[in-house]
Amino acid sequence: MGNPPCCSYYKLFVIWGVVGVVLLGLGSCNGEDDGDSSSSSSSSSSSPTPTVAPMEWKEKESLYAAIQGLVGSSWNGSDLYPDPCGWTPIQGVSCDIYDGLWYVSVMNVGPFYDNSLRCIQAANFTSHLFELKHLTSLSFYECFTTPVSISGLRWEAFSETLTALEFRSNPGLVGGLPPSIGSLKQLQSLVLLENRLGGGLPPEIGNLGKLKRVMISGNRFDGPIPGSFGNLLDLLILDLSGNDLSGPIPSSLGGLASLLKLDLSDNRLEGPVPPEIANLNGSLMLLDIGGNNLTGRLPESIQDMASVKEMVMSNNPELKGDLKGINWGNLQELQVLELTNTGLQGDIPDTMSELTALRHLGLGNNSLTGNPPKWLAALPHISALYLNGNNLTGELEFPNQFYTRMGWRFSVVDNPGLCYRSPITSPSVDSPHGIKPCSTSV
Ligand SMILES: *[C@@H]1O[C@H](CO)[C@@H](O)[C@H](O)[C@H]1NC(C)=O
Ligand SMILES: *[C@@H]1O[C@H](CO)[C@@H](O)[C@H](O)[C@H]1NC(C)=O
Ligand SMILES: *[C@@H]1O[C@H](CO)[C@@H](O)[C@H](O)[C@H]1NC(C)=O
Ligand SMILES: *[C@@H]1O[C@H](CO)[C@@H](O)[C@H](O)[C@H]1NC(C)=O
Ligand SMILES: *[C@@H]1O[C@H](CO)[C@@H](O)[C@H](O)[C@H]1NC(C)=O
Ligand SMILES: *[C@@H]1O[C@H](CO)[C@@H](O)[C@H](O)[C@H]1NC(C)=O
């Protein structure tokens, strides 16, 4: 049973700490800490058998009680793990040294490993959790199954310490996200994935200027996206997908200059795509605003988003607009363009042939017209092309090898005015699925 890396690492510091205390003692200074800690660590460095590392009694009792509330009262910490930061480490719990004493710094609860702490059905928070003075990272995975709430808890207690808070796949986690989350000034990572949290997103989250990622997808949050999220200038990932958020996309999100990933998909957002979103052209790689009810046409400003690799706006049937007038050639990184079911009209413009990095083009279920241009099949990396459910017309003039290569990743079905020229020489070659051959008269 090895110690977690942190602990063996910090054991070195215990030893050096003891040396330090000895040197201080020689210099006839009185250490601030009481003799208890130094004496027990002295004995641990000189004795052949490990003894209890210095840890405040209260810290240890708080840890035991916090865990008991989650894993059940039959779990006897003092019996099983008498030295939780030392020679009897608890899976998922790590410690750090502050002022010569051990404190719990990390607590991960849930079935990460075989011998991880696992929650009982009646798992609940106890106030003891909030007595852990130096907790920097707290995470609960598949823990809460019967309804418990995280509001009304003393989050302020962690305001100077907690950098990461994570709740993942907790079907019992209900109720709102309390505004007191906004007191966690050191927070860099807020991950709330696949729980049943609901209510509005507290604007106070916008005060947490150190946040690098906010991932809250798969909950039941409703109401607007707070404009204050635009203050999170260090943010790399903002994922609010799969909730019930409504109202407009705040234009302030255009100020999140460090953002790599913006995912607002599968909510009930409405109104136009704010042109400010196109300011995210320094580092943004993924933009997903699909599955909402956005309106006001496909914005021309997306042509400025030169860094984006994946752009998804599908399933916004009221978006409308057309593909013309956008300088597609500027989007040299774009690999995935997904505009299925966005109410698009007009032709597929030849300027789109400049999208040379494109792998996936989804234009299905729109009202596109005209003849599918030949160059689509010649895009160097194209491996998925959906043109089904439009009003495309004329003869499909792609090479037969293209149909063979693409298989089901190419679709033109439900374009009543479109036909393909049947190859006379090799009738066995794959033909596009679901459209009729052109009548033989040229
Ligand atoms: C835990 O175990 C210790 C030592 O075996 C015992 O004294 C204590 O009463 C136990 N505590 C609980 C809560 O069962
Ligand atoms: C969980 O604990 C909190 C206090 O920490 C209490 O208010 C709440 O009623 C408890 N919930 C359940 C389901 O026991
Ligand atoms: C989408 O928005 C339109 C117009 O703003 C509205 O008429 C329609 O009911 C909305 N649809 C949904 C599913 O919310
Ligand atoms: C980035 O966006 C700004 C404003 O939207 C625009 O002026 C600029 O040309 C864009 N940069 C690139 C490389 O497209
Ligand atoms: C297109 O619309 C049809 C009928 O409404 C639907 O069955 C199909 O799943 C849609 N396809 C896509 C790619 O959205
Ligand atoms: C296709 O065009 C016809 C005639 O212009 C129109 O009636 C029909 O609604 C269009 N279909 C789609 C899917 O846009």
List keywords for this structure.
442 residues; alpha/beta; 14-stranded mixed beta sheet; 5-stranded parallel beta sheet; 5 helices; disordered N terminus; binds 2-acetamido-2-deoxy-beta-D-glucopyranose
Summarize the structure.
By secondary structure, the protein is an alpha/beta fold. The chain has helices at about 5-25, 35-45, 55-70, 75-80, 400-405, and strands spanning about 95-100, 100-110, 135-140, 150, 165-170, 175, 190-195, 200, 215, 220-225, 235-240, 245, 260-265, 270, 285-290, 295, 310, 335-340, 345, 360, 365-370, 385, 390-395, 410, 415-420, 435.
Structure characterization notes:
This protein is of the alpha/beta class and 442 residues long. Helix content is 14%, strand content 23%. The protein is built from five helices and 26 strands. The strands form four sheets. The chain has a 14-stranded mixed β-sheet. A five-stranded parallel β-sheet has the order 8-10-12-14-16, with no helix packed on it. A five-stranded parallel β-sheet has the order 19-21-23-25-26, with no helix packed on it. Helix 1 packs across helix 2. It is elongated. Bound molecules: 2-acetamido-2-deoxy-beta-D-glucopyranose (6 copies). One 2-acetamido-2-deoxy-beta-D-glucopyranose binds next to loops. One 2-acetamido-2-deoxy-beta-D-glucopyranose (NAG) binds at residues 124-126, 148.
Cα radius of gyration in angstroms: 29 Å
**Lateral strand order in the biggest sheet:** 1-2-3-5-7-9-11-13-15-17-18-20-22-24
Q: Indicate the percent of residues in helices.
A: 10-25%
Please report the distance between the alpha carbons of the first and last residues.
79 Å
Helix-and-strand structural type: alpha/beta
Query: Mind describing the biggest β-sheet?
Result: 14 strands, mixed
Low-confidence stretches: 1-52
Number of helices: 5
The beta-strand count equals 26
Q: What amount of the residues lies in strands? A: 15-25%
Shape: elongated
What are the bound molecules?
2-acetamido-2-deoxy-beta-D-glucopyranose
Average pLDDT, rounded to a whole number, is 87
